[in-house]
Amino acid sequence: MLESLEQHFPKEATWTKPGGGFYVWVNLPPEIDTKAMMPKAIVAKVAYVPGTAFYADGFGSWSMRLSYCHPTPERIREGVKALGGIVKQEMSRRGGALK
Fold it and tell me: Which domains does the chain have, with CATH numbers?
């Protein structure tokens, strides 16, 4: 997952590099609302948990939690590639810089 994030996500995104566990926490530019982006991801057959699910006050709208515990490595690569494309489209649509 980490290699795929490096390869397919915009340079503006950051993420944790866990030493274990099941998830990677991804932060996108603040203009991206991961909850609003979810329907596009579902159409691309990708699911994640929007960051707002982890805050009582709606904070974290630009964050998402990605799981690497169940899917096969190939499905993870495919999913991250698809999700990276969606994120880049959202950034472009919202006027964000792409690097």
Answer: 2-93 (3.90.1150.10)
